[in-house]
Amino acid sequence: MEIAPTKSPDGSEKSPQSKELITSNTASTLCMSSRSESVWTSASRSKWDIYHKPVIVVSVGAAVFLFGMVITSLSCFLTKNKNVYKMCGPAFLSLGLMLLVCGLVWIPIIRKKQKQRQKSQFLQSLKSFF
Question: Which ranges does the record mark as transmembrane (predicted)?
Fold first, then answer.
């Protein structure tokens, strides 16, 4: 029994082999993307490897916030282009504050995940012991 090629909405024909390749490729991609490297590898990581992203976000946020403070204060001292400083200063202030807060909230979330991973590894070692 031979399977006839199916027609797509645009009128082109697709063979069953191409369908299998597409679905198998998608399934492997989904499986790979759903895995977390820390769950599948038990190598210990340094503090910098764990916290480097939130530290960078906090640093950039603080720098943008300070830049916004400088630009906002320039609107008080300089009379030339005062409207530009009044418009851009608060924008940089809010963007910097948003990044700063996001980074500061991210750090306790990472700590909580690390504690959960340690507990799960401890429970797995207990299961393997018994």
Answer: 55-79, 91-110
